[in-house]
Design goal:
The structure holds two protein chains of two kinds. Chain A is α+β, with helices and mostly antiparallel strands. In chain A, the strands form two sheets. In chain A, strands 5, 6, 7, 8 and 9 form a five-stranded antiparallel β-sheet that branches. A four-stranded antiparallel β-sheet of chain A has the order 2-3-1-4, with helices on one face. The N and C termini of chain A lie far apart (44 Å). The longest helix of chain A is centred in the middle third of the chain and has 13 residues. Chain A is built from four helices and nine strands, in the order E-H-E-E-H-E-E-H-E-E-H-E-E. The N terminus of chain A is likely disordered. By secondary structure, chain B is α/β, with parallel strands linked by helices. Helices cover 37% and strands 16% of the residues of chain B. In chain B, the strands form four sheets. Chain B has a six-stranded parallel β-sheet with strand order 3-2-4-5-7-6, sandwiched between helices. Chain B has a six-stranded parallel β-sheet with strand order 11-10-9-12-13-14, with helices on both faces. A six-stranded parallel β-sheet of chain B has the order 16-15-17-18-20-19, sandwiched between helices. In chain B, helix 3 packs across helix 17 and helix 15 crosses helix 22. The mean pLDDT of chain B is 96. Classes of the chains: A alpha+beta, B alpha/beta. The interface between A and B is medium-sized, with 27 and 32 residues. The complex binds flavin-adenine dinucleotide, thiamine diphosphate (TPP) and magnesium ion. The site of flavin-adenine dinucleotide (FAD) has 37 residues of chain B, from helix 9, helix 12 and helix 16. Thiamine diphosphate binds next to helix 16, helix 18 and helix 20 of chain B.
Chain lengths: 182, 587
């Protein structure tokens, strides 16, 4: 904790990880606005994904994983809502149950026993081989962040070369859709 | 080509006229020549040529703040746009509605480091409420109208429209503004009824209430000030205003405790500190107000009326937020108060006032009189006394001690008559802002209360004042120092006045005269009134250079990092060590 008088956390709250979904107009600069808001105000971004989800309405969905005290998270949502091209903001972490998924492509290089071992582990994790040569595999793995982290950890001693991850996408469980997409 | 198609530049002028814009403050250049050509061809929309684009933005701010309308700016690409940036951020922090049109290089050259190209939308993104790059003529009419909607609705703010030159020259169909709701930006103006009922209950139970109101009341319009005044007088509660809120409640009224905060009054700050229920109306718990957060009004329940949800719980946690426009919410609050026949706790209120009047008796704004040298506080007081019979007095300020003395000693009875740079604290704001106010109110008395350092930051605007014969009065409290900086150096840095003495100052009298304006000087208390009167009587622009006590400090003061009940005062101030070590890092 800093000794600052304007302490950022005067109420001594715990920080928590939140997954926030944002429906935005798919227009130039919209991602810069969101990212600029986070960097300018000193909020964390653990992961951020964006893609168009409703072509006809020109809407995209941004999923942001961030962390902060309840007060900061509340600020983040209010600040996001203030951006003109933002249609709606939803905090999946507190607004009921949700599912989160992330995809990773993991390249492992090796021959002999480590190569066989990497295949075996991939099987346990339900990772698919999407590219293979005599001395390498590219695995595709889908799951929550923890599962991906665990898989990557196990691949390290087996010749891990390269990783590419999408970042988290998430959606609420049940029949309800997110507002702001009419 | 359809016969009634017009150029983008013509559309810009048409849209401005349809939006009711009467005047635009600007400066030409290559990338906006088509628009200037259209300005030349008509005479409905007035253009005021400033001397630097920064001046245009502050002028538009002054215009907007004193009229409640959207201020409008026109600048060229590259350096024109970058010169406007400070003013845009100033308007952002003080919630001033502006539309700023910037020229841009033609679309096919964007990204090429073309001549006078700047990434204007990139640069201004964090200093505007919203910005647009118009890539096609089809989008232009919609964007023009949307910009005015965004600038003026909800919490107001500046909007930039970046207009490539080829779009200004392209032909297209113009569409007039319509009352369509924006697809995503829909601020909430009506407050939640249940919350308002709850607020009434909390207020009726209060034993030590305070109303703390700010710039949001001004933003909400003169009707909001009336409602605030009604409610305050109905309840008999004490009220204090922020720097941005001055004028929202009549200063002459006995329930008014003066400004609160770092340089606010003792009674206002003590009342805030000791209250049990606080009603915050359109103010944002700025750090100049709260001081040390964990000691800020520690025992009160807080109600916060604000149109911007991001202002709620930003620094201070409140017990009851009411999201909505001040005027709408106060109207409902008064209705519910009356319909539920809510009553204040008369007995408690009486002893609360007794306590408040004891604090008041300290007379915290008192200063040592001097018959040889003009005290800056006296200068402001005399200006006030000699103008208070007029209703049409508008005061702007620069930034520094003089700004605080103006806030403390000039008294405002109605909203929109006080223009100051609060959030950004931009030196150089006052002169161009006064220009904008005078353009909006040609017959009014407009005075920029200035410091000799600040005034030099936009001194070129004397040329604009001369050209348009604007009778703006510049009232310089000349202490030969960047006084506010010197005061902090005295309190915090052992009186080592590093680079805060103003050498090489111009002769302000001759400077005024060189622009064809009137120059006056007062150096002795005995000359003050006659000099002020001569300034007021002149029908042209005037600089009155008042030589004031150079080392006067602005008190009372809550030192950085201290609590509201730890104010320091003029006479009994211990200088060194007055501000604790850990307060030194704060600004
Ligand atoms: C040298 C210096 C010293 C200063 N010292 C002091 C000081 O001693 N005391 C002081 O008060 N200030 C001081 N300031 C100013 C300070 O920095 C802030 O600018 C000021 O306190 C903010 O005022 P405010 O809270 O009224 O908010 P504003 O900045 O005016 O914000 C208005 C609030 O109202 C809301 N709002 C806007 N429109 C509406 C609406 N229609 N309905 C409802 N809500 C609305 C906004 O969302 C916002 O939250 C100083 C500045 C300088 C440069
Ligand atoms: C553009 C800008 N630069 C620097 C500052 C920091 N600053 C705040 S007050 C001040 C001194 C102002 O001096 P002057 O205008 O003479 O006013 P005084 O305090 O003496 O009344 C300075 C440098 C500022 N607010 N704005
Ligand atoms: Mg000075």
């Amino acid at each position: 904790m800093s000794n600052s008088i304007y302490a950022s956390n005067p109420y001594h709250e715990e920080e928590r990880r939140h997954t926030i979904s944002v429906i935005v107009d798919n227009e130039p600069g919209v991602l810069a606005r969101v990212i600029g808001l986070f960097s300018g105000r000193g909020y964390n971004i653990e992961s951020l994904t964006v893609a168009e989800t409703r072509h006809r309405q020109g809407l995209s969905r941004i999923t942001i994983v961030t962390s902060g005290t309840a007060m900061i998270i509340e600020q983040i949502k209010a600040q996001l809502n203030r951006l003109v091209p933002v249609h709606s903001v939803s905090d999946l972490t507190i607004e009921g149950p949700s599912v989160e998924r992330e995809l990773a492509l993991v390249k492992v290089d090796g021959v002999g026993e480590p190569r066989v071992e990497s295949l075996r582990i991939a099987d346990i994790f339900r990772a698919r081989v999407v590219d293979a040569t005599n001395e390498s595999f590219v695995f595709e793995i889908v799951g929550d962040t923890g599962k991906l982290d665990a898989f990557i950890e196990l691949m390290k001693p087996l010749g891990l070369v390269d990783i590419s991850r999408t970042g988290v996408v998430a959606i609420s469980r049940g029949p309800e859709g997110m507002s702001g997409q009419e | 080509m359809a016969k009634d198609q017009i150029t983008g530049a013509a559309m810009v002028i048409k849209a401005l006229q349809d939006q009711g814009v009467e005047v635009v403050f600007g400066y030409p250049g290559g990338a906006v020549l088509p628009i200037y050509d259209e300005i030349f061809k008509q005479n409905k929309l007035r253009h005021v040529l400033v001397r630097q684009e920064g001046g245009a933005v502050h002028a538009a701010e002054g215009y907007a703040r004193s009229t409640g309308k959207v201020g409008c700016v026109l600048v060229t690409s590259g350096p024109g746009a970058t010169n406007a940036v400070t003013g845009l951020l100033d308007a952002m922090l003080d919630s001033i509605p502006l539309v700023c049109l910037c020229g841009q290089v033609p679309t096919h050259l964007i990204g090429n480091d073309a001549f006078q190209e700047a990434d204007t939308t990139g640069i201004t993104r964090p200093c505007t409420k919203h910005n647009y790059l118009v890539k096609s003529i089809e989008d232009l009419p919609r964007i023009m109208h949307e910009a005015f909607y965004v600038a003026s609705s909800g919490r107001p703010g500046p909007v930039v429209i970046d207009l490539p030159k080829d779009v200004q020259m392209a032909l297209g169909d113009y569409t007039a503004p319509t009352k369509v709701t924006h697809k995503s930006y829909k601020p909430q103006v009506k407050g939640d009824v249940a919350a308002i009922k709850e607020a009434v209950k909390m207020l009726a139970k209060a034993k030590k209430p305070i109303i703390y109101a700010g710039g949001g009341v001004i933003n909400s319009g003169p009707g909001a000030s009336k409602l605030l005044t009604n409610f305050t007088q109905m309840t008999g509660f004490p009220i204090t205003l922020t720097l941005m809120g001055l004028g929202a409640y009549p200063a002459a009224d006995k329930q008014y405790l003066g400004m609160l905060g770092m340089h606010g009054t003792y009674e206002a700050n003590m009342t805030m500190h000791d209250c049990d229920v606080m009603l915050c109306v359109g103010a944002r718990f700025d750090d100049r107000i709260t001081g040390r957060l964990d000691a800020f009004s520690p025992n009160s329940k807080k109600i916060h009326i604000d149109i911007d949800p991001s202002s709620i719980n930003k620094s201070v946690r409140v017990d009851l937020p009411v999201i909505g426009d001040v005027a709408h919410v106060l109207e409902d609050l008064i209705k519910v108060w009356k319909s539920t026949q809510a009553k204040v706790d008369e007995k408690a209120l009486k002893s609360w006032w007794k306590q408040i009047n004891e604090w008041r008796a300290k007379d915290c704004l008192a200063y040592q009189k001097d018959d040889k040298i003009i005290k800056p506080q006296l200068a402001v007081q005399r200006l006030y006394e000699l103008t208070k019979h007029r209703k049409d007095v508008y005061i702007t300020t620069e930034v520094g001690q003089h700004q605080m003395w103006a806030a403390q000693h000039f008294r405002f009875e109605s909203p929109n008559h006080w223009m100051t740079s609060g959030g950004l604290g931009t030196m150089g704001y006052g002169l161009p802002s006064a220009m904008g106010v005078q353009v909006a109110h040609p017959d009014a008395l407009v005075v920029d209360i200035a410091g000799e350092a600040s005034i030099l930051m936009n001194i070129q605007e004397l040329g604009t004042i001369a050209q348009y014969k604007l009778p703006v009065k510049v009232f310089i409290l000349n202490n030969h120092y960047m006084g506010m900086v010197r005061q902090w150096q005295e309190l915090l840095h052992g009186s080592r006045y590093s680079e805060s003495y103003m050498e090489g100052l111009p002769d302000f009298v001759k400077l005024a005269e060189s622009f064809g304006l009137k120059g006056l000087r007062a150096t002795h208390p005995g000359e003050l009134d006659s000099a002020i009167q001569e300034m007021l009587d002149a029908d042209c622009g005037v600089i009155l250079d008042v030589a004031v006590a150079p080392e006067e400090n602005c008190f009372p003061m809550i030192p950085s990092g201290a609590a509201h009940n730890e104010m320091i005062f003029g006479a009994d101030v211990k200088t060194e060590g007055a501000i604790a070590e850990d307060g030194m890092v704060l600004v």
